[in-house]
Amino acid sequence: MLNATLATQSDRQTLVHLSDYIAFGGEELVIIAGPCTVESRSQMETVATQLQRAPVQALRGGAFKPRTSPYSFQGLGVEGLEILSQVRSRHQIPVVTEVMSITQIELVAAHADMLQVGSRNMQNFDLLKALGEVDKPILLKRGLAATLEEFVMAAEYILSHGNSQVVLCERGIRSFDTYTRNVLDLGAVVALKQMTSLPVIVDPSHATGKRELIPALAKAAVAVGADGLIIECHPEPEKSVSDARQALSLDDMVQLVHSLHPIAAAVGRKIPASLTAVSA
Amino acid sequence: MLNATLATQSDRQTLVHLSDYIAFGGEELVIIAGPCTVESRSQMETVATQLQRAPVQALRGGAFKPRTSPYSFQGLGVEGLEILSQVRSRHQIPVVTEVMSITQIELVAAHADMLQVGSRNMQNFDLLKALGEVDKPILLKRGLAATLEEFVMAAEYILSHGNSQVVLCERGIRSFDTYTRNVLDLGAVVALKQMTSLPVIVDPSHATGKRELIPALAKAAVAVGADGLIIECHPEPEKSVSDARQALSLDDMVQLVHSLHPIAAAVGRKIPASLTAVSA
Amino acid sequence: MLNATLATQSDRQTLVHLSDYIAFGGEELVIIAGPCTVESRSQMETVATQLQRAPVQALRGGAFKPRTSPYSFQGLGVEGLEILSQVRSRHQIPVVTEVMSITQIELVAAHADMLQVGSRNMQNFDLLKALGEVDKPILLKRGLAATLEEFVMAAEYILSHGNSQVVLCERGIRSFDTYTRNVLDLGAVVALKQMTSLPVIVDPSHATGKRELIPALAKAAVAVGADGLIIECHPEPEKSVSDARQALSLDDMVQLVHSLHPIAAAVGRKIPASLTAVSA
Amino acid sequence: MLNATLATQSDRQTLVHLSDYIAFGGEELVIIAGPCTVESRSQMETVATQLQRAPVQALRGGAFKPRTSPYSFQGLGVEGLEILSQVRSRHQIPVVTEVMSITQIELVAAHADMLQVGSRNMQNFDLLKALGEVDKPILLKRGLAATLEEFVMAAEYILSHGNSQVVLCERGIRSFDTYTRNVLDLGAVVALKQMTSLPVIVDPSHATGKRELIPALAKAAVAVGADGLIIECHPEPEKSVSDARQALSLDDMVQLVHSLHPIAAAVGRKIPASLTAVSA
């Protein structure tokens, strides 16, 4: 059944363009990093400055935050988007942030280079349809208990409404074990790349919820054939307003990127040694 | 933590009013029945007429249908809502139908007595917030892999935005077994009634996906203390445009309601023998 | 495929005899109760004496205990079996206890009326085969993540080796939620009774791990069509050496049995009001 | 709590010796390959001869097979063990095979270099205790729904009874998705190596049940830090008597081992280029 979909009808790998120089699905892996939540301009400036040492190709940071409880901090909202915009202009680095509803699309699209759909909204079909009409790439995260077919079909909602620029993100699924927050399903990466022509990236931060597991799983994700990574890091992880337990320090993030080079090479992929190299 | 929420702060059971005469959470159980999807006016007329023999207190029927694939039938939309309106007026029976996005709320609220949030949207927080400002009761279905805390907190999004009329619906959770579509978690009914003051009903149709399991699970749901049931039935189940395998025939639905009387009595609850009795 | 098995080839319900007067699968439900672990003779004497007020038809109590850690208390072993024997003789009540390995079978069979296979051993095929050659009824508990087909096939190992006296026990399956220990799958009871001719009973104690959920789930189990229940209780639940959180007090256990009478009647089943009545 | 166990009390990585020259837990990865089931001497001769080209350090092959149904082929039994013995002597290569019950231990230990405990027996505590008294290394596979703590504690049953030579094997856990047979939990490999001092290997064959996913997951397993792999292959995969869908051809197996070299190098590990190199 899946064979009839737009996601699978291309003979070639779909390239999803984040900027003129950066695309998901090519030889170069795309690494996105940044804090769970945009907390302040100085925080994001520090993040951008430090991560250029890695380098990473894009920044992440939540302005609108989906939180289990309505009484938890819901993100800085518009102020968070403006901070992202400023950092993006000043550092010439693309930013990725989440959009939670149709009414936020226009605003988020004005400030970000890529719009993320979170796990809880993977089957928010009206949002997906609306994102099909947006001229920005979409990062679609797998639902916590979504089958691979459901995941591909969610992407198909976006594609069939006109937007072919969709990147899938495996971010861990629910299981019975409580040692890690979720179980990272790297077999899904391989399967998704066989089922569809879309790029697939991996989020080891939300998958595990424990920073000490992230570097090894990031290596595994590259080895398994992922087209990129999205990883949480923070200038002072222990002070993060959310998901503190899973954020890497910026130094550890830089170190992690460097450690991925030989793995990428071993599977015929590349990680840019500098952003100049990327844009050259 | 849950103790501080609106859902739990009442000493008494919350009553959620579906009409002047029907409320969830009282001595009388509320039984909602009808097809998965509104297919035609004649279909819904037959359903309403036949189910009055049971009787059931409300009709269900989907106008906007969340479907895994964008290429599956998405429901009759506005036409479906209008059919529901007509049947509701003519038969003087409340109707429950799903709302999938903020932009549909006003329209759906104009045609239905209760707005359903489907499993896939349980954590569509912007939709929940918007429903907090609606003057209609909300039927909130548990997400496929939602923990009880997440479920209660999703209700809390609605309550904290001003709408106290929320009914929780256990409808089966994902498991490893493929014999039934999902696993009906009746322990959740007991736990939810201990955790919150909100009424809790059970959907055995989506939980099992097999009609031959539904009558026994409906009895179990009543025995465990549920405040009502929502069950799929169809004039010609084998011709249903969706979920045909799980729809009861209308005769079987009527028979099922009758069979629940002694169970309800055994746990100190009632099922109305006629709608006149309900409204008296 | 399952149609070809011994478990399904009978046209009629299999009766599994616990004593001359007690059988699983008939009109009368069989209720088994007692502590998780046999702790002392006085404990078991108190249990037997008090539960005769319910009455229950059989006592449970572990002598050999499967424990996650090798450093946890492993049960009284042979001493526990001897206590069970004494109580069984003195009170003329059948006892059910677990057998963990082939080498224990002869010993356990000499002291107990029914041999239990625990969840962890549901696919210990060599043990199952050996139990197929024993002249005692077997209580086979569903594995924590066993599909229904695997469960029926595990019973088939016993049946195909010569012992037709097998009772299946649904005791909760693993899920992602941590509010209850496991999720009681009452749909499995209905399905198993459609798939096989074997009696099916329910263990709400291990399923939930919380005593406040047990009475309602016991009622639901009777309503759904279970042929019996196995429930943990203890003279002083808070002092139980294992699973203290889920044990009912003996008074609560007696009260629970009484509360099940109307539910049983509502589904055409009976619970004996006294053991004399049973044996009449 | 886990800190007090034997599995964790060593400051250093435990080395588990498969032969004088091969150990799990050192710089060199250990790769075990072979068919699901020993079918004939000629089959195993072909396997051994061909896999020496890889090379692999050990052969696997089931003589006693745990099967869901009692009517499925249960393995060649003693004849299978004798075939393993002959191939092992003739090719000077260690063999790993499963032991299903205490009564088989002596026999299996006489023919094999390492005794495997299958997933279904991970909490067959009497078997584990008996294996604690055996002078052979044990390969303990994770149960289908075992938590990491349960898995480590199962190993502890063996260790605390005197056998320190235990290798843990992650082989996929049960999930809701049916696209792959199970979900390979590579985060568990990282976590287990942090929780215990025992070597951890990965079985991508049973984890996925689909041969086209195996090479990528084998690379990921090496990247994540596994100490070895166990992989199913067969001279004619489509003719395998069991698990045909997941067996690699022998050529693909050889090719897979070669493809792992650069990944191993990238994480500071080695795969021997020839068995002579290993034993040098």
From TrEMBL, chains A, B, C, D:
Which GO molecular function terms does the record list? 3-deoxy-7-phosphoheptulonate synthase activity; aldehyde-lyase activity
- One GO process term, biological-process aspect: aromatic amino acid family biosynthetic process
Report the residue ranges that make up the DAHP synthetase I/KDSA domain in this protein: 22-258
What Pfam families does this protein's entry cite?
A: DAHP_synth_1
- What is the E.C. number? 2.5.1.54
Could you tell me the keywords of this UniProt record? Transferase
| Name listed for the protein in its UniProt record | Phospho-2-dehydro-3-deoxyheptonate aldolase
Name the species this protein comes from.
Answer: Coleofasciculus chthonoplastes PCC 7420
